[in-house]
Design brief:
This protein is of the alpha/beta class. It has twelve helices and twelve strands. The protein has an eight-stranded parallel beta sheet. A four-stranded antiparallel beta sheet has the order 3-2-1-4, sandwiched between helices. Strand 9 (about 220), helix 8 (about 230-235) and strand 10 form a beta-alpha-beta unit. The longest helix is centred in the N-terminal third of the chain and has 15 residues, at about 85-100. The chain is globular, with a radius of gyration of 20 Å. The model has no long low-confidence stretch (mean pLDDT about 95).
């Protein structure tokens, strides 16, 4: 079976820049892909690379789409190279949307983790998100001076309700000493700190395994398992802690499903600031595979202006 293929480049500015250990991120760029079958049914997918996290670059994704013919078949989609994981996700998601009548899901009933800005702005944002019903929060560390961040952390903890949880995400920005310091502090608030995410760089798995066995606070891997092949390798190297998966850049959804169904692991699904197209595909995958009570890391809507309801139609018509 073959499909008509088309794509558009799309970008949107963040309401506030996203600041992490990697720097300041101001604009989210994506590629929206469209497939149309012989019956005229149309479905969309989203390619949202995150090169500094481990996916292909936007340039590589655009070059790939440019080289695809106007008519493609299933085999072409299912055999996208592993070096293009965001392209795998975007095209396979569009294909799934053509094949399956999508069920209406009330995403408002899902337990989301709200992303806080780095630094002191996190305090007020935590209060606002708490008023909106959030019970789990994620805060980026390793951005400012550690003494400043520890002070802010104590302020955040002091305003959390007894049922609320916080996740700390270092994006690999700590060293062994500061990771031990953070873990020792988190152990003092074990009922409120859910886990410390990617404290050390991807080449320090041995050290993270050691730390996970020494401290009460759980450690989650993120950058270390950005792609499906990395996830498999880390799993078979002995990591049986928490796996934070970003569906939009991990690669083939069908192969991810197969691995997770064969190897039950502690999963947390997380956003890469997709549009509603990628978000829906990622959430559907997360709801199918999630095997725990952990909140889904998609509480990022407050980082974007509300989109025009006709944005997708305008994207095609204005090209």
């Amino acid at each position: 079976m073959s499909f008509l293929f088309d794509f558009r480049f799309f970008q949107q500015e963040f309401v506030r820049p996203v600041v992490t250990n990697y720097g300041v991120w101001k604009v989210r760029e994506s590629i929206i892909v469209r497939l149309q079958n012989g019956d005229g049914k149309i479905a969309f997918g989203e390619i949202s690379p995150l090169a500094w996290f481990g996916s292909e670059t936007m340039e590589q994704a655009i070059n790939f789409c440019d080289q695809l013919p106007h008519e493609i078949d299933v085999n072409r989609i299912l055999n996208i190279p592993d070096c293009l994981p965001a392209c795998q996700f975007g095209l396979e998601s569009a294909l799934d949307n053509l094949r399956i009548d999508q069920k209406l899901t009330n995403y408002e009933d899902i337990n989301f983790c709200g992303l806080l800005p780095s630094g002191k702005d996190a305090i007020n944002q935590c209060l606002r998100l708490g008023e909106q019903g959030y019970k789990t929060f994620k805060w980026k560390i390793g951005v400012e001076d550690i003494d400043t961040e520890i002070e802010i952390f104590h302020l955040l903890i002091s305003q959390l309700s007894s049922s609320a949880k916080i996740r700390l995400d270092a994006n690999g920005g700590l060293n062994y000493h500061t990771a031990k310091l953070w873990l020792s502090i988190c152990d003092q608030f074990s009922t409120q700190v859910e886990f410390l995410e990617q404290p050390l760089s991807v080449d320090m798995l041995t050290e993270m395994l050691e730390l996970s066995n020494f401290y009460q606070t759980k450690i989650a891997l993120d950058e270390s398992i950005a792609r499906l092949q990395q996830l498999k390798e880390i799993y078979f190297q002995g990591w049986h802690g928490i796996f934070v998966i970003k569906p939009a850049i991990v690669g083939s959804p069908s192969r991810l499903k197969q691995f997770c169904q064969q190897h039950p692991i502690d999963l947390v699904f997380s956003s890469v600031f997709e549009t509603e197209i990628g978000r829906k595909a990622a959430l559907n995958l997360a709801l199918e595979l999630s095997n725990s009570h952990r909140a889904l890391g998609f509480g990022i809507q407050h980082y974007f202006q509300e989109q025009n309801v006709n944005w997708l139609e305008n994207l095609w018509n204005n090209h």
